[in-house]
Design goal:
The complex is a heterodimer of chains A (about 525) and B (about 325). By secondary structure, chain A is α+β, with helices and mostly antiparallel strands. Chain A has 18 helices and 24 strands. Chain A starts with a helix and ends with a helix. Chain B has about 325 residues and is mainly α. Among the domains of chain B are: about 75-145, no CATH class; about 180-335, no CATH class. In chain B, about 75% of the residues lie in helices and about 5% in strands. In chain B, strands 1-2 form a two-stranded antiparallel ribbon. Chain B starts with a helix and ends with a helix. The chains are: A alpha+beta (about 525), B mainly alpha (about 325). Chains A and B meet through α12, β18, α16 and α18 of A and α3, α4, β1, β2 and α6 of B. The complex binds iron/sulfur cluster (3 copies).
């Protein structure tokens, strides 16, 4: 707990900085309450290049230097920042990995704003936002533009040349950013927030996808004046965009015909890839981030969450834990596949208007990290679109637990023949014993396992299997409040564009009866 | 506020039931409780109705624990994965046929989907829901959902709370406000406890979640506990990275209650002079410990809040069990004598 005297010294130091001097009383109090002061002795590396830190730092004393190591192995000092300067806005706003290593050149004292506090000030304090955005435009924007597939690979000078043409836009929820059929004249990069993309298919508006932070669209507009928007982009929440008018981009690159030609070729490839005509554009481009890095960016921005999630309506949930206990009761290893620790979505940010928590159970991702990290062919997508473990192949190597970005996979002890045979004593009662048989266990013996039977079985990977084979999903079935539901992201973010045209999941209606 | 309990169809039914008996009492001029000789009909009717309600109310408990213990008959319906996949493949083909216009009505589609589920042996586990598609989209949407044979616990809960409340009123009508025996007083007293704690539970049900959500706005107990565990792991790793004698001193400092941030600061000060290479690691450790302290106190506070919300059950459940036992004795004795 900070003492009153320490607080007033801290306040004097912080509020003397131009960045904080015009904060409202409420924001000053929040800053004082939540800011963290960190001290670093000289020579400390406190952020690694490529690290995902979402904190925002203000130098109170000392010198912080930034070192960037290029692919060639050459390391150069990008800049040095002294008292009153700040850094970290790129990561804090857009989840971008740090562009350089940060090192305390001298003993440093830094004020650290966590993402929540930063977001609050950035969203609601005009002066703070203006200063941070101006700084972002000068220092980080050129780097950030590399996220746009079309622009990745431009030299730092070329990217810097685009800085003056970039326009910052902020939109509230529900704003239409681009309308299907109208002329496409801009490339748009989502800095924070998210949009839905809907397309007209056979006469009706159908949801085609989501664009979250660091996604971009409009690259096809680079191909010429006759390009139209292929869909309608609507903000799902308060959203920050970076808009690059194509005409201005062309002007900024005038005098570099080679570059214009290269970008045109790239735009053609991107359009072809979007329409499914070619694949592998990104692999072919050596200047793209590695697949892992891309995946990490996408995962951090949650743009690849594709399947159905278990959502808890926090305004109904009495936190009784019956859902987790029910999950345990249908799995004989006693390991719950459900963790109520999940992502919160505020009522304002979703179409259902409810305070929600997306529990950590399997999302059955469109791009499942678990699957690509398993070397034993033990994870596959079944015909229902669900991600399943093929237990016969699972050797318990735990690689999938590292591959899953949502931490939903658990390892259980290796199957033990004795345990498999044991059951309730009630099962032995003649005639009616069968009524008391518990749920079946997966039958797995080392000898029966397939191709990988030579491998030592260290354990078994488990995750939500949607209570496979049972006539219920135990968590949903046993919640006394009807608070937990299986819902699709389209329902959460845009209730109107459900497949069956309803805004409320049919199962939910049942429960509410 | 969560009003689902009040919106359930069982709530008005329970109210009607209570009003019906109250009307009966007025119409027959039957006082509550007592007067066995003159108002036997009213006494018997309230008694049997209360007993029936009690059985209904207990069914919820039975269903909940049977399921939790894995003894619920639904578990017997479990089917293997191959059948599920076989059914899903055929349903996919059915969807294609529907889009091609082969089955024009929802009724036909539903019976065809059910036939597939039956043939694949999964009809006891899954059922088909057919709805008209959105304008311009597929003509019909076929969803395969679990059969949920006994209905969700949420619905059983509606029954439990509505008829449980009605049971309280009927018990009062049956026993009256001044029972003539100690046994009667005991039954009435216990009934009152169960009723009052149940009402408290209903009230907490309605307002509690919103309150808890606000309280846990920044950090839920699940997040805080996971965070605490991860800080613990990081702290152990940081301790490992220290030189053995310093690690020992840190361990003894950490074992001390109450731990003081000043001790750690003093140790860092001392080491800055004597072992400067250990200082950064120690500073990390001190930062982790400080964070851990904050999170631990938050976890404690959150646990306290949640405990407050469940404390009513500590009275409700045991007293309800005793009440059920005594009611059984009461019914048995009436039966016998
Ligand atoms: S286990 Fe994790 S990565 Fe795999 S599908 Fe589920 S949520 Fe996605
Ligand atoms: S659907 Fe079944 S396996 Fe998945 S979290 Fe719920 S209870 Fe657990
Ligand atoms: S069972 Fe329902 S009310 Fe209880 S913790 Fe789970 S979601 Fe919340």
């Amino acid at each position: 707990m900070t003492s009153a005297k320490e607080k007033s010294t801290l306040a004097e130091g912080l509020f003397a900085l131009p960045l904080f001097e015009n904060l409202s009383k409420k924001h000053r109090e929040a800053l004082l309450e939540f800011v963290e002061i960190r001290e670093f002795p000289p020579g400390t590396d406190f952020i690694r290049q490529g690290e995902y830190t979402r904190d925002f730092f203000v130098v109170l004393s000392g010198i912080v230097a930034f070192y960037r190591t290029e692919k060639s192995g050459v390391t150069q000092v990008l800049e040095q920042l002294g008292p009153g300067k700040w850094f970290g806005e790129l990561s804090a706003i857009s989840n971008q990995p740090s562009l350089a290593r940060a090192k305390a050149d001298t003993a440093c004292v830094l004020a650290v704003l966590d993402p929540g506090l930063f977001k609050e000030l950035h969203q609601f304090s005009k002066d703070f936002k203006e200063q941070v955005d101006q700084h972002y435009r000068e220092r980080s924007l050129a780097q950030h533009l590399q996220v746009v597939p079309l622009l990745a690979g431009l030299s730092p000078e070329q990217l810097r040349a685009l800085r003056p043409v970039a326009r910052f836009e902020h939109h509230d929820k529900g704003a239409v950013i681009a309308k299907e059929g109208e002329h496409a004249e801009d490339i748009v990069l989502v800095r924070a927030g998210g949009l839905s993309l809907t397309r007209t298919i056979e006469g009706s508006q159908r949801l085609s996808g989501y664009l979250m932070a660091n996604s971009s669209f409009g690259e096809h507009a680079f191909l010429g004046h006759a390009e139209l928007w292929h869909g309608t982009y609507t903000t799902l929440m308060p959203t920050d965009l970076l808009v690059l008018p194509i005409a201005d981009v062309r002007k900024a690159l005038a005098g570099q015909p080679d570059m214009i030609e290269r970008l045109t070729k790239k735009a053609t490839l991107i359009v072809a890839e979007d329409s499914g005509e070619v694949t592998g554009l990104y692999d072919a481009e050596e200047d793209r981030a590695s697949l892992d890095e891309q995946l990490e960016i996408m995962v951090h921005s949650e743009s690849i969450k594709g399947g159905e999630a278990l959502a808890i309506d926090l305004e109904k949930c009495i936190r009784c834990n019956a859902c987790v206990e029910a999950c345990v009761s249908v799995h004989d290893d006693g390991v719950p596949r459900l963790s109520k620790k999940g992502n919160r979505i505020s009522a304002e940010a979703n179409a259902l208007g409810k305070e929600l928590s997306l529990t950590t159970s399997c999302y059955h991702c469109e791009t499942p990290g678990c699957m690509s990290s398993c070397n034993y062919g033990a994870i596959r997508r079944d015909s229902q679109g669900l991600i399943r473990f093929v237990w016969d192949n699972c050797v318990g190597c735990a690689e999938c637990t590292k591959g899953c970005p949502y931490d939903v996979i658990r390892l259980t002890a290796p199957p033990d023949a004795e345990a498999e045979e044991s059951g309730s004593w009630l099962e032995n009662i003649p005639l009616i014993g069968g009524l008391f048989a518990g749920p079946q266990r997966p039958q797995l013996t080392v000898a029966e396992r397939g191709y990988y039977k030579e491998q030592e079985v260290k354990g078994k990977a488990v995750k939500c299997d949607r209570c496979e084979g049972l006539p219920f999903e135990a968590c949903v079935y046993n919640c006394p409040c009807g608070a937990i539901e299986r819902v699709s992201p389209s329902l959460i973010f845009d209730g109107q564009i459900q497949d069956d045209g309803t805004a409320v999941a049919p199962q939910q209606k049942d429960a509410d009866e | 506020m969560n009003l689902t309990l009040f919106r359930s169809k069982h709530a008005p039914l329970a109210v009607l039931l209570v009003l019906g008996f109250a009307g009966f009492s007025i119409a027959a001029n039957a006082p509550w409780g007592r007067e066995v000789s003159t108002h036997r009909g009213f006494l018997l009717a309230t008694g049997w109705a209360a007993l029936l309600l009690m059985v209904i109310v207990m069914a919820y408990v039975l269903r909940k624990y049977a399921h939790r213990g894995g003894y619920s008959p639904e578990f017997r319906r479990k089917v293997d994965y191959a059948s599920l996949e076989g059914a899903e493949n055929r349903i996919k083909r059915l969807r294609q046929q529907i889009n091609a216009g082969a089955l024009p009505t929802a009724k036909e589609i539903e019976s065809e989907a059910q036939r597939i589920l039956r043939e694949e042996g999964v009809h006891k586990v899954n059922r088909a829901l057919v709805k008209p598609g959105p304008p311009g989209g597929d003509p019909f949407i076929v969803r395969i959902v679990p059969t949920e044979p006994l209905g969700r616990v949420a619905r059983w809960m509606h029954v439990h709370s509505a008829y449980g409340t009605a049971f309280g009123f009927l018990l009062l009508m049956h026993a009256g406000t001044a029972p003539q025996s100690a046994f009667g007083w005991t039954l009435l007293g216990l009934g009152f406890f169960v009723f009052a704690t149940g009402i408290l539970g209903i009230a907490l049900w309605a307002v509690g979640p919103r309150w808890l959500t606000r309280r846990e706005k920044d950090l839920s107990i699940e997040e805080a506990t996971a965070f605490q565990a991860s800080l613990g792991r990081k702290r152990s790793a940081a301790l490992e990275s220290l030189d053995a004698p310093i690690a020992r001193r840190m361990r003894s400092l950490m074992g001390r209650r109450p731990r003081s941030a000043d001790d750690v600061r003093d140790l860092i000060g001392e080491l800055t002079q004597n072992a400067p290479d250990q200082v950064p690691a120690l500073q990390d450790l001190a930062a982790l410990m400080a964070q851990e302290r904050v999170v631990a106190s938050e976890v404690k506070a959150l646990r306290r809040v949640r405990a407050t919300f469940t404390a009513w059950k500590l009275v409700h459940i045991p007293v309800a069990i005793v009440l059920v036992g005594l009611v059984a004795v009461h019914v048995a004795s009436i039966w016998k004598y």
